Amino acid sequence: AWLEKFNAAIPDMPEVIEAYRMSGDVDYLLRVAATDATDYERIHRSRISRLPGVQRIQSSLALRTVKRTTALPV
Q1: pTM, two decimal places
Q2: Average pLDDT, stretch 22-51?
Q3: Which are the contacts of 27, defined by CB distance < 8 A and separation ≥ 6?
Q4: Cβ-defined contacts of 18-26 (< 8 Å, 24+)
């Protein structure tokens, strides 16, 4: 039941710009847009940690963009 509630809550979060259901050790991967670490902490505390079924969060912050593209090599 928490999966349906979690999935239903994600579209209402403008900070979440991508969300993936994963296999392996984690259930979901969220890509979140934040202006800085303080803004991310706010989003983490007030939004992500309160999502249905969330028991643990592992966060990583990008320090620098090395390459970004949407082009596919086909």
Answers
A1: 0.82
A2: 94
A3: 21, 53
A4: 26/58
